[in-house]
Amino acid sequence: MNPFPRRGLLAAAAVSPFAALAACQVQGGADAAESDFPKRAVDFMVPFDPGGSGDLISRAIAKAAEEPLGQSLAVTNKPGANGAVGLKELLAGKADGYSIALAVKSLFAITPLAVDDPEAVIIDDLRIITTLTNEAYVLVVHADSPYQTLEDLLAADSVNYATTGVGTGSQLSAQLLFTGAGIDATDVPFDGGASAVTALLGQEVDAVSASLAETMPQVEAGELRPIAVFSEERSPFLQDVPTAVEAGFDVVVDQRRFIVAPADVPDETAGVLSLAFEEAREGAEYGQFLQDNYMDRWEVDNLEAKTHLSEAAAEYAALVEDAGLQLGDGA
């Protein structure tokens, strides 16, 4: 992983030339080149609780994008249903580029396996403005827990484990593990990583699967103990912590985060936003943020991003079916 910028900052540009460049690249017409978006601040919705991984990355990229965009990005939190509440509100508004939102892989690849929502947000409802991060999940216990290792935890008669919500990678990773181990485990869902980790810190549950960004500060402070990561290889941040695969469980689950607008946002407007975030991703301060918060870059084009989401949905569906899981409410 190289969390630092791969190339230097793009040349700084004023708002009008920047907008014109984006418009020309997307549409190539004279009308597009005359676009003067944005004329005012852009609302950036984070459909998760403050303090969680999604909130952290959103505020970091928003700060980095304000200069290249030439306008402020007003971040607001609208949590609920693994991001669905906020994205439904986004889609109910105008597709003019002045409202954008963070979105996560799990909403499209995992949540449909757990929640039967006839009005579910689908990826085709949205236009991906930019991709951001790839984050690993780690299973942690309290520092005072009697469970020193994953083997200890899986030998318990029963386990209560917190997750970041129904239909999340947090829930899927833990439930696949515990089901595969054949132990009696009860899912206690919370509405975001911050609240799930808080429950573990208060020893209300035995364990939690959450992102590195949501757990590593407490791990480094000696308050939590990591016992397994749900990635193909060991995390560079937790070299001494085995993967679930090493323990004999084929559980590989990650989280990808990206920024979206309604699908019918004008091409030239989407182009301005995309270029602003592309430049923001190259900034040294943003690169340092990724390193400080244990996040890998995920920077691919829209087609590759949508292909990944589609393939992940099929893969997770197969895992759930093979394991005989009923995600549902997680109980």
UniProtKB/TrEMBL annotation:
Q: Where is the signal peptide?
A: 1-22
Q: Which Gene3D superfamilies does the record match to this protein? A: Bordetella uptake gene, domain 1 (3.40.190.150), Periplasmic binding protein-like II (3.40.190.10)
- At the top level, the lineage of the source is Bacteria
PROSITE patterns this protein is in? PROKAR_LIPOPROTEIN, TAT
Which Pfam family, giving just one, matches this sequence? Answer: TctC
Keywords carried by this UniProt record: Receptor, Signal
Q: Locate the transmembrane regions by residue number.
A: none
Name the family the entry cites: Belongs to the UPF0065 (bug) family.
Q: What is this protein called?
A: Tripartite-type tricarboxylate transporter receptor subunit TctC
In its UniProt entry, the species of origin is given as Glycomyces artemisiae
